[in-house]
Specification:
alpha+beta; Alpha-Beta Plaits; five-stranded antiparallel beta sheet; 8 helices; disordered C terminus
């Protein structure tokens, strides 16, 4: 037996080496074909004006499926029957399903996100379960990626996003701004409203076609709180908010209208004749 094994060893080694070389060639060609197919499908979807999230999801699914087919093809080259492999996978489907139920939930979640479209690539969302928020940069097979304002990347499971509440901040073209400003009780409310209304009218970023006005919001302990309501385009919201807040302060200063700070009056009575009253302001 040993002598026969030694005699057949060169032939078996040559046969095995040939299979390895052919498998390497098939792997190389298969990888290149997969890239070509993915590129063609992606360009076709882009020409059809498909949503970017749909394109990314289909690309991920296509990549996963084609690589599985390629690996089964290579395994068949080493004598493994493809039908037997599929039958084995089918018989082990229950065990595999239990083992990867989280991944399956994420896959189904990704499908639901693409079908129902609660958000798309480029939207700014706030996920309520764990408080994550950021701009959506990709919707992939199992996960969705966000970038935060400080350039961090957050990876969220699609299953979590599909089964929890979230806020899509940029779903609309415009966003309302509600700004609160406190003025002194000694100030003229009508004058203050006119000053703030003028700031709104002069700001180029305020959408004049939508409601924009100033109102008395609250009679607080140490100030009269005025409310400013206006609308900005989604792209110009934060710049408009910061600019408007700064211009409000300048306008009130020029009009001589004070913005009070919280204060407390403390009265102290002495034990001797007479009383001493001190006022401390915080």
């Amino acid at each position: 037996m040993i002598e026969r094994f030694i005699q057949e060893l060169p032939e078996k080694a040559l046969h095995l080496g040939t299979r390895i070389v052919l498998s390497a060639i098939v792997l190389f060609i298969g990888v290149q074909l997969i890239k070509v197919v993915r590129r063609l499908v992606k360009k076709s979807l882009e020409r059809g004006s498909a949503d970017q999230g749909v394109i990314q999801f289909i690309d991920s699914f296509l990549k996963f499926s084609l690589y599985v087919v390629l690996l089964i093809t290579i395994a068949s080259g080493f004598g493994l029957d493809a039908a037997s492999i599929l039958a084995l996978l089918g018989s082990a489907g229950v065990a595999i399903g239990l083992a990867i139920q989280g991944s399956l939930a994420n896959f189904v979640g990704g499908v639901l996100i693409l079908m129902l479209k609660p958000f798309k690539v480029g939207d700014y969302i706030k996920e309520d379960t764990n408080g994550n928020e950021g701009t959506v940069i990709s919707i992939e097979l199992f996960y969705t990626k966000l970038t935060t304002v400080d350039n961090r990347v957050i990876v969220l499971p699609n299953g979590t996003l599909a089964n929890s509440s979230l806020t899509n901040v940029t779903a609309c073209d415009s966003r309302r701004l509600d700004l609160k400003v406190g003025i002194s009780y000694d100030a003229d409310i009508r004058q203050a409203k006119e000053v703030l209304q003028k700031v709104l009218e002069e700001d180029e970023g305020v959408l004049k076609a939508k409601e924009h006005f100033v109102y008395v919001d609250e009679l607080a302990e140490s100030s009269v709180n005025l409310g400013i309501r206006c609308w900005f385009s989604m792209d110009g919201y934060w710049q408009g908010k910061w600019r408007l807040t700064e211009n409000v302060k300048y306008a009130l200063d020029e009009a001589g209208i004070g913005i009070p700070y919280p204060q407390m009056d403390l009265h102290l009575a002495g034990r001797k004749k007479g009383k001493t009253k001190k006022m401390l302001k915080n």
